Amino acid sequence: MEYIYSVIPSLVAIIIAIWTKQVIPSLLIGLWVGSLLLTQSLLSSVGQTVDYIVGVLTDTGNINVLLFLYMFSGLVALIQISGGIQAFGSRMKKYITSSKRMFMVLWGLLPITFIDCGFRVVATGAIVKSLSQKYNVSKERLAYMLNNSASPVIILIPVATTFVGYVLGVVGKGMQASGVEGSALALFIQSLPYQFFSFTAIAIAIFSIMPRFNFNVMKELINVNSTPNKLARHTEFAEEFHHHEKGESMKDQTGNAVKDSMEHNHDMDEKPILKPRLINLIVPLIVLLPLSFFLMWNSEEPSHSMLIALFITTIITTLLYRVQGIKLDKLVERFIKGGNQLIVTIAILAVAWPISDVSQDLGLGQLIETTLAGNLSPIFVPVLLFIVTSAVSYFIGSSWGSWALMMPIAFTLAVSTGSALPIALAAVLSGGTFGDVTSPVSGMTAMAAGIAEADHMKYVKAMSPYNLTAGAIAALLFLVVPFIL
């Protein structure tokens, strides 16, 4: 037990994050505690904390990831004001004649809204919300469909999304912590078949379009004449998490309370500046996707290749919108404002990466090797990682925060026990995705409820049976599949 102190930084960060629901301060405190244990000096620990943060921010690979995230969010902001989404929505409305077709369109919009989780919910919601009201689709059902067609799907796409840029960053740090060599992108792609929660959550959401496959709470909400007081007792759950205010008003669901904690937030009320034209949506996509694939093919630095593809796409998109009349200063303003909407994510990485470093310096790898390598079967590692990550992400309401915390631990544990790295990686990503779409304090849960104008806690109560079922099936798969492999 010589290296038992190595788990304290992550443990402190997780406990404080669960208690405060604030990821960044919790990570910073965890990093400082680790530095204090390492230096055994109060004054030196502060300097060591700063050194760790500066160290990760001066690494070329890390800067590629952070710039990619900032620029990607800026590009999404430009697309939002271009009118491209509105043009596509106007065309699609001509073919929607029933609630089932509306749901088909909601899922069919993925090829043009997949680039970011928040963008997916906001853009799709803007297109289908009026149609859902026309065909008497409950607000909670719409919120459930929006949320479960975002994170669970986007985490499966290995190119041209904010998720893949972030994931490559945390995977790279996990590989570095455990001494694994190779490509973070290749390992991420190998993990895709084992993303069991995403597959089960998507399948259950699609099946729920048919009334016979719905749980009782959602069946009650399908009837738009249901009495609001029927589910009032369920707001007790919100009080346990001290976030009851999120479900009280539309303002709270889309305003400061949510924006302060959301990792991939985009303005829900953003109006297009240009006349809606389909080309304004299509051009950025047809440039970004093929260019990303081309530059990343056989690249030894996929994050750098994605950044180049994104830079070229942003220039072309800016020129396209400038020709149509948007002033350059407005484009720059919207780009910077959009980039700043992912500053929370960038800050999470800036303090989560150093926690991995200080934990390794305190002997995390040696601790896992001496205590677990001979006592824990590699077969049980994936299900253990999935359950723990799910719990962490559920209580802190942050998939990206839980990934940053758990990835170095997961890689070190998998290497020490001989567990397969792709399925271990998939278990952590699946656990974070579970919390992202299920937790009452998740930013994406609040965003989906807000854009659908649904009561936050009614929505949480209605969708929980679906996601808990998907989570249980995923846990079973993470337990059974390693026996087969």
From TrEMBL:
Cited InterPro entries: Na/H_Antiport_NhaC-like_C (IPR018461)
Taxonomic placement: Bacteria, Bacillati, Bacillota, Bacilli, Bacillales
Subcellular location: Cell membrane
Membrane topology listed for this record: Multi-pass membrane protein
Organism this protein belongs to: Aquibacillus albus
Superkingdom to which the source organism belongs: Bacteria
Protein name: Na+/H+ antiporter NhaC
All residue ranges annotated as the Na+/H+ antiporter NhaC-like C-terminal domain in the record: 156-481
Membrane-spanning parts: 7-24, 30-54, 66-85, 105-128, 149-172, 192-210, 278-297, 303-323, 335-356, 376-397, 409-431, 466-484
Keywords carried by this UniProt record: Cell membrane, Membrane, Transmembrane, Transmembrane helix
